[in-house]
Description:
CATH architecture of the largest domain in chain A: 7 Propeller
CATH superfamily of the largest domain in chain A: YVTN repeat-like/Quinoprotein amine dehydrogenase
Number of strands of chain B: 6
Oligomer: heterodimer
Strand content of chain A: over 45%
Largest sheet of chain A: 5 strands, antiparallel
Strand content of chain B: 15-25%
Number of helices of chain B: 3
Largest sheet of chain B: 4 strands, antiparallel
Radius of gyration of chain A: 24 Å
Structural class of chain B: alpha+beta
CATH class of the largest domain in chain A: Mainly Beta
Number of helices of chain A: 2
CATH architecture of the largest domain in chain B: Sandwich
CATH topology of the largest domain in chain B: Electron Transport Ethylamine Dehydrogenase
Distance between the termini of chain B: 71 Å
Order of helices and strands of chain B: HHHEEEEEE
CATH topology of the largest domain in chain A: Methylamine Dehydrogenase, Chain H
Number of strands of chain A: 30
Amino acid sequence: MRTSILRATPMAIGAWFAASACGADFSTPLQPDRVQKVETLPAKYPTTWAWLNYAGDRIELRNVGSDSREVKAQLQARDSATLLVADKRPEVYVADTVWSRGTRGTRTDFITIYDTHTLNPIGEIVLPGGKRGLITAQEGMVTFTDDQRMAVVFNFTPASSVTIVDLINRKVLGDVEIPGCSLVYPTGARGFSTLCSSGNLLSVQLDAKGAVAGRSETKAFNPLDTDPLFTASTLVGGVRYFPSLHGRVQPVDMRGDEAKVLADWSLVTAADLEGQWRPSGWQIVAGDEQKLLYVLMQQGAHEGTHKDPANEVWVFNTVNKTRVKRLRLVRPGSSISLTHGAEPLLLVQAGERLDVYDSREGALIRSMDLPGLHTRLQIEPLR
Amino acid sequence: MAQFDLLTEKMLRGFASRTSRRNVFSVLGGFLAGAAALPLLPVARAEGPEANGSDPNSGVPAPRYSGNPQDPGDATKCDYWRYCAIDGSLCSCYGGTVTSCPPGTEMSPITWIGTCSNPVDKRNYIISYNDCCGGVPWGRCACQNNQGDRPLVRPSNNNEITWCFGTKSQSYTCTVSLILGVAIDQK
């Protein structure tokens, strides 16, 4: 690369000025750098880092808790890649799909196992049948169960099923058909629940070999024609909360083998309804250890705006089911998450930005770029 | 050559003697007005980039119109009426059209559907959003409209799924928007 005189002159003046100011004579040269140096990461990451999944096309690890704002690492992601971050052992899992000739050829669905310290791939589990759901990366496409010893992968062909994977022994245990149902949420000691098109929830219990040990269905509670639940949810106090398109929130207790549907409640008052406030965005909900529920809310909502960026985050006390504060965002946000710890940071994806807020006061602390984010961001905070 | 010059001079002098200066401007003005009006005509818009008045230095492909006044709008823009529930890349920007896939790809026969209102004839149409598969996706003309989109629990109304089923490759390229018919309550 040639450097023009116009560009070189200020650089030279700057270097001379710096040298003069310091009084340094630079009598010894810089030492040669060691070659083949590769960075490593701590085996357990700080809770002020977060995984950012660019709609399944790219995954990066970012320091969101420091003004350095640096990218710590990246993981390969090709198509609808989804991430599982273990806290029981130093491993990260990515479920992905590739074709042998780029966009054509033999399809392979697989889970890659990465060592968290080196981020080297240390194992792989091929998922048979070419049936993993190719859907914008989101919650519910893959989940842990059995205390993180197993993974449950959602398949869509468009027939629905799941593949049960043994993560310890790196092998597929089998498939379970879930006709008419979508996505998976961990349930009980070893099992999962899935949302079904008849408005109910199917819970499946597994034995130690990954075979079906029991099934149970709730009554229909999800009014798909009038006010369906978003499939995005968050855990607060062990209970999973699903907001609805029109502003209810539906708690479901999945701690036992059979999911229990609890009483729903409204996120909006009569005055809010007049302003047409509704939940809106992509990853629209987050929860913290103080049993607070954070929901992205949009004013003037109507049919077709449920994935639009929202201007505010409303915070609810899930114990007395009341709103405790409203946080006005500096830029409309589409996905939110909270870091874990005593002073959680509120992470808000707003276009090609990740804004970091103080979750208590709602003040913007810092903002970082998300270059090349064309669609959705799935944020995975660290424990 | 001298005879040609003489003939040209004779013609021009004859034209000048029969035509006033005001008359010349009125004729020219008529042409100019006509030229300005041409891009507003749907037929002219269908003729291609040169005829539709778009800036050739804009750097982006020129608008693409159907040429049918009952099917208005630019098929390379997200606000074209058929795209009311689309989430993906427009095939009109990849070598395909509103209704056809780009060369080298394959159209999925299994799709999701939406209902879009035609702003001209005021009818609601059932639109099939067929994905084109096996090509190269890279984000040109990416649109996200969610009219009638529903959570994944109802897959046939969900636009986040890659609808590449029954195709050799399930790798997503772009989406077309086919009219299946008028919504039943509008017939």
